[in-house]
Amino acid sequence: MRWSTTTGSDGLPDYHNPSQTARVQYIYDSQDRALVPQFGIRSVTDVGYLYGTSGSPSTPRIFSQIEFSRTFAKKNILLMNMEGGTMLNRNVAQPFRYTLGGPLRLSASAIDQYRGTDYFLVTPGYLRRIKSLPAPLSNSLYFGSVFEAGQMRSPDGNTITRADLYFGLLAETPLGVVSIGPAIGNGGDRKLVFTIGKFF
Prior knowledge:
By secondary structure, the chain is mostly beta strands. The protein contains no helices and 13 strands. The chain has one domain (14-197): Porin (Beta Barrel). The chain has strands at residues 2-3, 15-16, 20-29, 40-51, 59-72, 76-86, 98-100, 114-116, 118-132, 140-153, 160-173, 176-185, 190-197. The relative contact order is 0.15.
C-alpha cells in the first residue's frame, strides 16, 4: 500500500507498507434489474481480518449493506440503502479506513472526505418515471430525490454526522444510469452532482 499527499498538507505521514487481509463475503440478490431495480432485495455481508500491517494494529473488519426497492402505482419506485462497517475503533492506518463522501455517499461532500474506523449510512430514495425513451438511447427517464444521513467515527478524531438532500433527473442508458442534480448538505456544503453507472 502506497499512500502519499501530493497536493496540500493534511498533517499525516505518508505510508508505504505491505498488508494482508483475509475475508469471507456473502451476497444475496433478488433484485430484478441491475441499473434501476423495480423490486427486490440485495444484501452484502463481509467479515475479514486485517493483519501483518506495519505501523497499524491488526483488527477485524465487519461490513454489511442492504438495498431494497419496491414499485407502486406503476411509475413510482421506493429505494432504500443501509450500510455500516466497524473496525472496533482501532487506530488503523489511514489507507485502510472506511470512507464517506461523494455521489450517493453524502453527495454534498467531497469524495472520500470523511475517513474513520466505524460508520453508518442510510439512504432512502424516491424515483418517478416521467417518460419512456426509445431504444437504444434509453429505457426510462426519472425524476428522483434521495436523502442521505451518515456518521463517521475514529479513535483519533471527532465523530462526524452529516445529512443532505440530492435530487435531479436520471436516465437509463447503454452506458448505465446517468444522473445530474444539486446536493444540499446540512453543514453548508453544496455540490452539482453528475454520475454515470449504477444508481443504487
